[in-house]
From TrEMBL:
Keyword field contains Metal-binding: yes
Function: Adenine glycosylase active on G-A mispairs. MutY also corrects error-prone DNA synthesis past GO lesions which are due to the oxidatively damaged form of guanine: 7,8-dihydro-8-oxoguanine (8-oxo-dGTP).
Lineage: superkingdom: Bacteria
Protein name, entry field: Adenine DNA glycosylase
Length: 349
């Protein structure tokens, strides 16, 4: 138990004061866990506070519209999380009478809740002895025990899961889970971990074998896809033409502008591209380039161009999801971060 005791002792001195650590409310814990997926605490905290203020209970969350949830989520990325949360909240209303479940076997059946999140919620809310296994925990275990099995392989997930569960303290699983996650986040960081002050350095395999930078091992990431999206700005007085993204793709159910995606950088001098524009906006359309932005996602690099259109006739057969809205209404709709950046830079200077 020396490993666990040292982790908990370190945690008692170095832990951050975070609002979701002062509650056993499974709904509040769920909010924090989903918001903080793929998100730094500093970035996620304002979103957590806004969501909890707007929707203090899971029933309040379930009563919201998808548009309201995605608007509040705007800028946080991975928008499927927000859509899944709304589905889950409504599931809880239907299947659990609005009472958020606290047991692992019930939680794992809910949409958007995987093994890590189910373990976190169940241990933090009810004291169930389920070990959490997130990126921080993977890193601490790989370095301390000297495990070079790739953490994102089937074998690695099984090996680390069994090890993590064997280390859990059945007396206070919540405390140990919080401690090891915080230890990985603050002490055993991915780069430049603070080994000189680490209480585990004497028995840490990676420290003793000069393998800190090599562990944990992770299989190579998926190749990055490059995309080129060309947006067209159509204005009519105080209204602007917007498009709802309905397909299973990035920014699903968010609102952007009518667009054409091309295989490479597009130019209005390119006859094929310009003919495509005319098919959507009429033979006499006038096109003015406005702005170019490079946008980075986890596995995609998106090059975006914005064009202002005049003298256009909209072909709604090719733009079935397009509609006119006022600028005020558009501000209330959830939209990709890149559109907010464009609007702030171009229209609100």
């Amino acid at each position: 138990m020396a490993f666990q005791q040292e982790i908990i002792r370190w945690y008692s001195t170095h832990k951050r004061s975070l609002p979701w650590r002062d509650t056993q409310d499974a709904y509040v814990i769920w909010l924090s866990e989903i918001i903080l997926q793929q998100t730094r605490v500093e970035q996620g905290m304002p979103y957590f506070n806004r969501f909890l203020e707007a929707y203090p209970t899971v029933s309040d969350f379930a009563a919201a519209t998808e548009t309201q949830i995605l608007k509040l989520w705007q800028g946080l990325g991975y928008y499927s999380r927000g859509r899944n949360m709304l589905f889950t909240a409504r599931q809880i209303l239907e299947l659990h009478e609005g009472i958020f479940p606290v047991r692992y076997n019930d939680l794992i059946k809910l949409k958007g809740i995987g093994e890590y999140t189910a373990a976190a919620i169940s241990s933090f809310s009810s004291g169930e002895a389920k070990a959490v296994l997130d990126g921080n925990v993977f890193r601490v275990l790989a370095r301390y025990f000297g495990i070079d099995t790739p953490i994102n392989s089937s074998q690695g997930k099984k090996q680390f899961s069994e090890l993590a569960q064997s280390l859990i303290d059945p007396g206070d699983p919540a405390l140990y889970n919080q401690a090891i996650m915080e230890f990985g986040a603050l002490q055993c960081k991915p780069k430049s971990p603070d080994c000189p002050s680490c209480p585990l350095q004497v028995s840490c395999y990676a420290k003793n074998n000069n393998l800190i930078a090599a562990l944990p091992v992770k299989l190579k990431k998926l190749s990055v896809k490059t995309r080129h999206i060309n947006y067209f700005i159509c204005r009519n007085g105080d209204e602007i033409l917007v498009n709802k993204r309905i397909y299973d793709d990035i920014w699903q159910h968010l609102y952007d502008f009518p667009n054409i995606e091309t295989a490479e950088v597009a130019s209005i001098e390119n006859e094929q591209f310009f003919n495509n524009i005319k098919q959507n906006f009429g033979e006499n359309v006038v096109v003015l380039p406005l702005m170019e932005i490079k946008h980075l996602l986890t596995h995609q690099i998106i090059y975006v161009q914005f064009f202002a259109l005049s003298n256009y006739i909209i072909n709604f057969n090719n733009n079935a999801e397009a509609k006119w809205v006022s600028w005020a209404d558009f501000d209330e709709l959830p939209q990709p971060k890149i559109l907010t950046k464009f609007i702030n830079n171009y229209f609100k200077e």
